[in-house]
Write a structure and sequence with these properties.
Largest interface: A-B, 53 and 54 residues
Structural class of chain B: mainly alpha
Shape of chain B: globular
Largest sheet of chain A: none
CATH class of chain A: Mainly Alpha
Oligomer: heterodimer
Strand content of chain B: under 5%
Order of helices and strands of chain B: HHHHHHHHHHEEHHH
Order of helices and strands of chain A: HHHHHHHHHHH
Helix content of chain A: 55-70%
Structural class of chain A: mainly alpha
Shape of chain A: globular
Radius of gyration of chain B: 21 Å
Number of domains of chain A: 1
CATH superfamily of chain A: Ferritin, core subunit, four-helix bundle
Strand order of the largest sheet of chain B: 1-2
Number of helices of chain B: 13
CATH topology of chain A: Ferritin
Chain lengths: 257, 325
């Protein structure tokens, strides 16, 4: 098997893509703290956010190591500007109501679970080890978000309507997960990660099974917003998220916490 | 977190049954949900456990205020874990209260319409990052002081909940102290944040033990029932004695010019909190009362469609299963 060059810029990009997703989504979910519809959901949201931040530490820690320029995972999380982030646009959109938050979680978890499953077979042992640890957590995230999507989709008229609206709003952000570029091509060649496009069939099968059970209709449109994972164009929302997340590190440079 | 200002109630009951009940408590037996108990014991416990549970829930808000601004990934993870534990404590406590014949929804409604209280400390704001350390150090420290003896309380489910909660709370206190220590040992700006946090949270933390014993007329019955294990002033003194050396170690000044070690008593002499402020906060006039209750009401109201939706789905699923059988 091919061994990746330690300082490969493409490898570092790939790791940022893996780490920025849980960082930004973990931030979004943690905005719910104390405001969830029921106590069990407060616990589950905090638990999911905690897993995501743990995964961030592993991916960004490895990204920093691969970059080899003396930066830490915290430097990457707190001192990059919006254009340097490599997360999917899906995870940076605002929470909306609880239905949109859980629909976004489900659409992400389904991709995340499949992606991590593939990464467990990565030629890079460090990637495989992180994927193995994270996939146990994500299996639970997916079970919970899928159950909630089914429960609310097939609940009352109002909950059904809200879940359909959430799906309609988020659907244009799904396609980005499966777009491939040169970074991905290099990862495929090195045996580090799968081609994103190759995950689509399994993803579509999984989400259509759950969304059918939830009595929801997948929009016909195949249009996809893009730019998050390449950094070419984020949403306006990311900058606001970063002003909050990075505030202390920016306001008091050099302090240890 | 815990309960303060809980009044115990008395009712007309068979003196023989009451004496037998008291004898069980005096013998150190645990009272279990199905056992006979005086109505006052039940009501007092519902209020005390309910108030404690509400404190855990409302307590998510001042900490949640900083989760999205936590300065490192590790601090963010620690804070998330702590808030998750606290919501979990709320859950055990509501379950303990439910064994006394009141539902979680009923208790929640009483919180939301102001009939039930939560600890006054959560009506104070968290204004800088050091507050998060100070909440762990002082607020959880005060809570532990109160809860450790409650592990031996007479009501079985409450005692068992306390045993579990205390384990997690001592972890919270340690991480809080560690966070504020980092600040106290940090840059001048960080040290200023740490001192500012202590200045604002010191007296509200002392208030957590409830009014002075001379003004706390409801303690005797609760102590006889072993629902309350120590007086307010005993616990407050213990907290001061434990906390002052910790502040000294951090190089922070406790905002009490009259604080001094009393050799004769073997305790620190300290200034009581401003009780008029305490009673104002209890009445609803603390810095955050209105916002905290509004946030909880909004969460509950906005979440109604979610609870209704999930319930409707569970019913449909049960009906389908029934039809298939």
């Amino acid at each position: 098997m091919a061994t990746p060059t330690i300082k490969s810029p493409a490898f570092a990009q790939f790791l940022l893509r893996m780490g920025d997703n849980p960082l930004i989504l973990g931030h979004r979910i943690s905005e719910w703290c104390g405001h969830a519809p029921v106590l069990e959901e407060d616990i589950a949201l905090a638990n999911t956010a905690l897993d995501m931040i743990g995964q961030t530490r592993m991916w960004l820690g490895l990204a920093a190591e691969v970059q080899g320029d003396g930066k830490s995972a915290d430097d990457l999380a707190f001192l990059r500007d919006a254009w340097e982030f490599r997360n999917l646009l899906l995870v940076e959109v605002p929470n909306g109501d609880f239905g949109r938050t859980l629909m976004r979680q489900f659409l992400f978890d389904a991709w995340h679970a499949i992606q991590l499953g593939r990464l467990m077979k990565s030629a890079d042992e460090r990637v495989a080890a992180i994927a193995e640890k994270a996939s146990k957590e994500v299996a639970y995230h997916l079970e919970r978000s899928a159950d909630t999507v089914v429960g609310l989709g097939d609940g009352t008229e109002e909950s059904h309507r809200r879940m359909q609206e959430a799906l309609d709003y988020l659907w244009p952000y799904v396609g980005e997960m499966f777009q491939s570029d040169d970074v991905d091509a290099e990862m495929v060649t090195a045996g580090i990660a799968p081609d994103p496009a190759s995950l689509r069939v399994e993803y579509d099968a999984l989400i259509s099974r759950i969304l059918t059970e939830a009595t929801l209709t997948i929009p016909q449109s195949s249009f996809a917003h893009k730019g998050g994972r390449t950094g070419a164009m984020h949403t306006e929302h990311l900058g606001h998220l970063l002003t909050q997340m990075q505030w202390l590190q920016r306001a008091y440079p050099g302090a240890t916490w | 977190m815990y309960a303060q200002m809980v009044k115990s109630e008395a009712a007309q009951e068979d003196p023989e049954q009451l004496a037998a009940f008291q004898a069980r408590i005096d013998a150190g037996e645990k009272i279990e949900p199905k056992d006979w108990m005086p109505e006052g014991y039940r009501k007092t416990l519902i209020r005390q456990i309910g108030q404690h549970a509400h404190s855990e829930i409302v307590g998510q808000l001042p900490e949640g205020n900083w989760i999205t601004r936590a300065p490192t990934l590790e601090r963010k993870a620690i804070l998330l874990a702590k808030v998750q534990d606290e919501a979990g404590h709320g859950l055990y406590l509501y379950c303990a209260a439910e064994t006394l014949g009141v539902s979680r929804d009923e208790l929640t409604e009483m919180l939301l319409d102001g009939r039930m209280k939560y600890s006054s400390i959560f009506n104070y704001p968290t204004l800088n990052w050091a507050d998060i350390g100070a909440v762990g150090w002082l607020v959880d420290g005060a809570a532990i002081m109160n809860q450790v003896p409650l592990q031996r309380t007479s009501f079985g489910p409450y005692s068992r909940a306390m045993i579990r909660i205390c384990k997690e709370e001592s972890f919270h206190q340690r991480q809080g102290y560690d966070a504020i220590r980092k600040m106290a040992e940090g840059t001048p700006a960080q040290k200023k944040m740490a001192q500012d946090a202590l200045n604002r949270l010191w007296y509200p933390s002392l208030m957590m033990f409830g009014p002075s014993d001379k003004d706390s007329v409801h303690s005797a019955q609760s102590m006889a029932w072993k629902i309350k294990m120590n007086t307010n002033d005993e616990l407050r003194q213990k907290f001061v004695d434990q906390t002052v050396p910790q502040a000294e170690y951090l190089g922070l000044s406790v905002p009490d010019p009259d604080l001094k070690w009393n050799e004769e008593r073997g305790h620190y002499d300290y200034t009581d909190p401003d009780w008029s402020e305490f009673f104002e906060v209890i009445k609803g006039n603390g810095p955050c009362n209105t916002d905290r209750l509004a946030a909880r009401n909004k969460a509950w109201d906005d979440g109604a469609w979610v609870r209704d939706g999930l319930l409707a789905h569970a019913k449909k699923k049960a009906a389908r299963r029934h039809a298939a059988e």
